[in-house]
Amino acid sequence: MAGRTSMTIAALVAMLAAATARSLHEPDRPAARPATVTPAQPAAPASAGRPLGVREAVLDNGFRVLVVEDRRVPRVAARLWYRFGSMQEPNGEHGSAHFLEHVIHQGTTTVGTTDFEAERPILAEIHQTEQQLLAQTNAQRNALRERRVFYDDTELPSTPEIEALRRKLYELEDRDSQFRDFWAEFNWYRRYGTIGYVDPVPASTEQEYLKIDIDLPKENLELFFRLEADRMVNAVLRGWESQRFTVLEQILNGLSRPEIAFNNALDGATAQVHPVFIPDGGHPRDFAFYNRAAMLRMYDEYFVPNNATLVLVGDITLEAARPLAEQYFGRVPRGPEAPARLDMEGEPVPRGTIRLDWAEPLDPRVVVRYRIPGVGHPDRPIFDTIAAIMRGHSGVVQGRLTRQAAPAASVDADFRVIHTYRFGSPGAINFTVLGSRDEDLPALERAVLDSITDLRDGRVADATLARAHKALRLEWEQIRLDRARLALELGQFAIMDRWETLEAYMKVRQSASVTDVQRVAREYFTPGNLVVATARSAPPGTAQARRPETNP
User: Fold this and answer.
1) How confident is the model at residue 50 (pLDDT cuts 50, 70, 90)?
2) CA distance 485 to 491
3) Is 64 in contact with 309 (CB distance < 8 Å)?
4) How large is the average pLDDT for residues 41-66?
5) Disulfide-capable partner of 487 in 79, 110, 297, 352 (CB 3.0 to 4.6 Å)?
6) Does 23 score more than 80 pLDDT?
7) With 50 as the cut, is the pLDDT of residue 319 above it?
8) Among 36-40, 59-63, 175-179, whose mean pLDDT is lowest?
């Protein structure tokens, strides 16, 4: 394999073992007591039609390990989940959870540095300079306030004093970079056989979770335990300024796509207060106010063993995983229970139809959206059934379009909010119809709403429901046979509800009856819970709308 070294994992871990399980910014954290494990019963290996056979161990410090054994390939999909995401961000610092994901991948006190003792005074000066910057920002808050309605997101507010302090931070960061071993952790993973990620930050942050994804040969799995336990305790937020502009560029690139801007506007129109509908990448202006001190508070509060779940799917047993978990994560002290913060806040009950008529050019479309309950609510799996009934060329909406002689269109049904499709908090179901002409939008919207009426009245053909069940069964079997996708599902349910409910959820959605569908449609698909968004290729008042048609 390209880049593979001849050093064994045992030798590598021994080389890295000089690490101390002590946090840079919490030097007096006490040592953990020896970990014990709650008993877990063995289960049959996962295969079609059988239980998954999930086995669980929980260490004394609260660190949870879930294992599904699958010996078909001598590899293991490792997914480390933290119950922490954009829903925990304070106002004015949206996107900071995603940004924290990036900066904790810049190394630790033991990895990613050629001389940490030489870094210490530079890091201390960075901290002092940033405190001065925060004081200036607080003192100049009226000068920094944005008072315009229409403005350029890329113009970050500043003052001469703030600019001088930022330049000093850039200089200090350049000084620190001479001691950096860039992307050391990811390079170790690559050398020892990881697959799937080419990005040196093999992680993602959504509204409810941050997860770190690695897939390794089974004989090299110990490397994951060593590096991720170190990251949990000893992360050093190096390369802050360069990462700030790297992530900001990602966000601006996304916002430059008309469809992303439309989707963000739809999410903003859907809810009044719930943070699940706030873009998890953040707003460009917020990047000017990120600071290391706030990030370290989030890191200390949420990156603790009792707020983490490790999911392992592949050629490994619980008996093999448990000693590794005890050796590495078991040394980390249990932290205070992570703050729930906004993930417990309820959205006000919807009381009226909301319409969004997008004013910028976009391919013609209609989105009919309803708010729905989160994972853990008994009605949630039935919405998966409804989506399967409605979407595609053989779905209910397409049937309506055909019967009403409506223009040709493509039909989809999904649960996207921002770019995530499932939540423990209430989310949304979207029925999206893409047309070819602006003038067809009223007919397309009518076809979707008439299809909703069909569901409410129980007009779902047996063959349509059977096709939906078959599609859902096939999807579940494909997930079971894919170690990465199964690790994703288990981790999501562990965060959003309980991992034990995953299989029951899948059974409900692929056996829901017409009566179940009708009951749920009547309760949730109501005018008071409706959001309709339309987009046109030539919105009224735009240059596209004024452009004269040319004769063929």
Assistant:
1) confident
2) 10
3) yes
4) 79
5) 79
6) no
7) yes
8) 36-40
CA distances (Å), origin 322, targets 57, 63, 65, 286: 7, 11, 8, 41
Residue 235 has what DSSP assignment?
Answer: B
For 297, the token pair is 């508070």
- What is the rounded CA–CA span in Å between residue 116 and residue 95? 29
Adjacent-strand bridge partners of 121 = none
DSSP 34: P
Count how many residues are written for the chain. Answer: 552
Name the percent of the chain in helix, strand, coil, to the closest 5: 45, 15, 40
Question: Average of pLDDT values for 201-217?
Answer: 96
Across 50-126, where does the E strand assignment appear? 55-58, 64-69, 75-82
DSSP string, 485-531: HHHHHHHHHHHHS-GGGHHHHHHHHTT--HHHHHHHHHHHSSGGGEE
Q: Residue 493, class by beta-carbon neighbours within 10 Å (0-12 exposed, 13-18 middle, 19+ buried)?
A: buried
Confidence of residue 29 (pLDDT cuts 50, 70, 90): very low
Closest CA to 349 of 426, 258, 435: 426
Q: What is the Cα 207 distance to its own chain's centre?
A: 6
* Upper half-sphere CA count for residue 100 (Cβ side, 13 Å): 33
| The pair of three-digit structure tokens given for residue 262, joined into one six-digit string | 């439309």
> d(Cα 192, Cα 113) in Å, to the nearest integer?
20
User: Among 184-188, 347-351, 365-369, which is the least confidently predicted range?
Assistant: 347-351
**Calpha distance 211→203 (Å, rounded):** 6
DSSP symbol at 219: G
Tokens 């410090």 belong to which residue? 61
pLDDT above 70 for 376: yes
At position 376, the amino acid (one-letter code) is: G
Which whole-number Å values give the CA distances from 186 to 24, 191, 192, 214, 444, in the listed order?
21, 9, 10, 10, 48
Q: Quote the distance between the C-alpha of residue 74 and its chain's center.
A: 28
The structural domains of the chain, ordered by start, are 35-113+180-342 (3.30.830.10), 354-542 (3.30.830.10)
Q: Is 368:430 a contact under the CB 8 Å cutoff?
A: yes
Sheet holding 55-58: strands in order across? 55-58, 64-69, 308-314, 75-82, 210-217, 203-205
Distance of alpha carbon 480 from alpha carbon 484, whole angstroms: 9
Contacts of 167 (CB under 8 A, 6+ apart): none
Q: What's the DSSP call for residue 329?
A: G
How many other CB atoms are found less than 10 A from the CB of residue 422? 18
